[in-house]
Design a protein that fits this description.
alpha/beta, eight-stranded mixed sheet, six-stranded mixed sheet, 11 helices
Amino acid sequence: MKYKLLATDLDGTLLNEQKEIDVENIEAIHEFRQKGGRVVICSGRSPSSTRWIADTIGLKGEPTIAYNGAFTLNEHGEIVEQSVFQHDHLLSFWELCQGEKIYAHFYEGETLLVPAVTKWNERWIENNILPLEKTGGRVEELVRVRGKCQVKTVEDLNTYFTTTQPKITKIAVFDEEDRLFDFSKVIAKQVGGMEVSSSLNFLNLEISPAGVSKASSLIKLTQQLDIPMSQVAAIGDNYNDSLMLTAAGLGIAMENAPKEVKEAADVVTGSNDEAGVAQAIRRYLLK
């Protein structure tokens, strides 16, 4: 086969709009693997969430990339690489958010640090560790994995950052006033050490430590697997996938992707509600 590894995003890509994975996608993934291909999930979701999804669809033996590249996990779910923000950058960023009255929360491992309970975090554990009922998720395992996660309210994040020196690997930003595209530019100008993207067409911001992306972690992983990027296909649907699509030998955008993401890709497949991943595997990879 021309392509030996498929790197796939989750939300808007492998997951349909019901947050399940169509059987066509699972069957195509296993057909590709049976022919010797590797499949790696590359997601903005947490380490436990990516591993839970990988295990549910039978991707045992495969590594995963989580928090947009801040975590790389081996086939056993063990962390082999982790990237964190510098604390002065965290303090500067949170000061900017407070000044602009923009909400942000922070990911410390499997714990979500929030300044207050809001609609953006109150069901984080349930939304992070999806039930996957139609996909084949086992209830007892779902309960176990959810038990590893927690939401922690920290009213004074400045003090928490200063005294605790937490290892923050990802930041998410939300706003109701359509200000986030402009705010992303302000972050770039006023705060150092951050990579800013979006997984929801700028309805949110996803922020990683400088130099960290799905692409950068995928490149490191493929070097360890001795697979050149020219033999890697990557598929995704949003701005936090763009670098990965351009770095891969074959970049595949979903039909539901924004125009700019489609333009960054080599080809476009069906939407996430049309088993677009399966379409791409059968059209481009099983050769």
